[in-house]
Each structure stands twice: as C-alpha cells, then as structure tokens.
Amino acid sequence: MLTAILAFGGLAAAFGIALGVASVRYKVEGDPLVDQIDAILPQTQCGQCSYPGCRPYAEAIANDEAEINQCPPGGEDGVIALAELLGREPLPLNPDNGVADDEKYQAVIDEDRCIGCTLCIQACPVDAIVGANKLMHTVIEKECTGCELCVPPCPVDCIDMVAIKPTITTWKWTPPQQDAA
C-alpha cells in the first residue's frame, strides 16, 4: 500500500515538473500575427480607426473583424505593408476614418495662454503632455504622436499642430513623379 502511494506520488511529481518545464519552454506571449500587424501600425494611438489604439486594431485585423485600410496615419504604405503580410489585396484608404498626410505633426502648447485645465492631459493617449491643475502645460516632443486628440478639448485654443521639420535622421527621399504623356 505504501509502495503504491509513493509510486503514484512520484509519478505525479514527475509529471508536474515536466508540465512546468514545458509551460515555461513553450510559452506563447500572444498571437505572433497580432504582434507583426501591430509592428506595422504607426503607434499613434489616435483612435481614427474606431479602435482605442493600435494594438486593439491589430487584434481586430488578425481576427478578420476589421479591414486593413482604416489607419490614416499609416497611409497607403501601411495598407500595402498589411496587405503583403496578410496575403490580401491592398485597399484604398477608407475616407470615413480620415485622410493620410505625408507630413508629420506635433502638438505645441502656447504656454502664455494655457490656463492649466488639464483637459488636454486627459485626452492624450500617450501621456505626452505634462503639467498640473491651474499651471501651464507643455508637450514632451519625443512622446507626441501628432494624433490631434488634445486639440478639441482645449477651452482656450492654445494648442497648435505644427509640422515636424525633417532632420538628417528623419529625411526621406521621394522619387519625382513622372508625367504620363
């Protein structure tokens, strides 16, 4: 009787250890397709695609719940990259979600006019605006994605979207358009 209990206990311990090792070794953090789709999206977290951020939109695309053409910040290049990844035909950008703009923008707060209402801080999806109640606010340039979600809630209209000037690291050559003659 004691031998049987020890044998079953030993087997249970051995299987438990084997399952523990297997769960660590073969652990899957998430859907790799969602990760690949999310890597293509621009990470602006703007919500123009009708999803609260890029990751939920990537999950919806992976689950065939959303089309690949709903991200204006990603533009046509993003749609083409998603189509190539998923083996689908590229679609024109859906105008219901907004229009693509090749120029990138960034929020700038006129600190002299800012009344410190914190409405822009609450609206910013990436926490790029810092400040305190009844004190001026400012934008952390490296964090701002240019989503424009901070502009509508501002009661004193002190936030402007300014085009980001290209630097040596962000400059991109665009081939000239050829006339079809």
Task: Tell me what you see in this structure.
Its cofactor is [4Fe-4S] cluster. It is found in: Cell inner membrane. Its main location: membrane. Residues 105-134, 136-164 form the 4Fe-4S ferredoxin-type domain. InterPro entries: 4Fe-4S_dom, 4Fe4S_Fe-S-bd, 4Fe4S_Fe_S_CS, Elect_transpt_cplx_RnfB/RsxB, RnfB/RsxB_Proteobac, RnfB_subfamily. The protein is of the alpha+beta class and 181 residues long. Among the domains are: 32-97, Electron transport complex subunit B, putative Fe-S cluster (3-methyladenine DNA Glycosylase II, Chain A, domain 3), CATH 1.10.15.40; 105-163, Alpha-Beta Plaits (2-Layer Sandwich), CATH 3.30.70. Helix content is 33%, strand content 9%. It has helices spanning 2-25, 32-40, 54-62, 75-86, 119-123, and strands spanning 105-109, 129-131, 137-139, 159-163. Strand 2 and strand 3 form a beta hairpin. The mean pLDDT is 89.
**Which topology of the domain at 32-97 does CATH recognise?**
3-methyladenine DNA Glycosylase II, Chain A, domain 3
Distance between the termini: 94 Å
Quaternary state of the chains: single chain
Rg, Cα atoms, Å: 25 Å
In CATH, what is the homologous superfamily of the domain at 32-97?
Electron transport complex subunit B, putative Fe-S cluster
Which residues form runs of ≥5 with pLDDT under 50?
Answer: none
- The gross shape turns out to be extended
- The succession of helices and strands, N to C, reads HHHHEHEEE
Total strand segments: 4
The major sheet is characterized as: 2 strands, antiparallel
Beta-strand percentage range: 5-15%
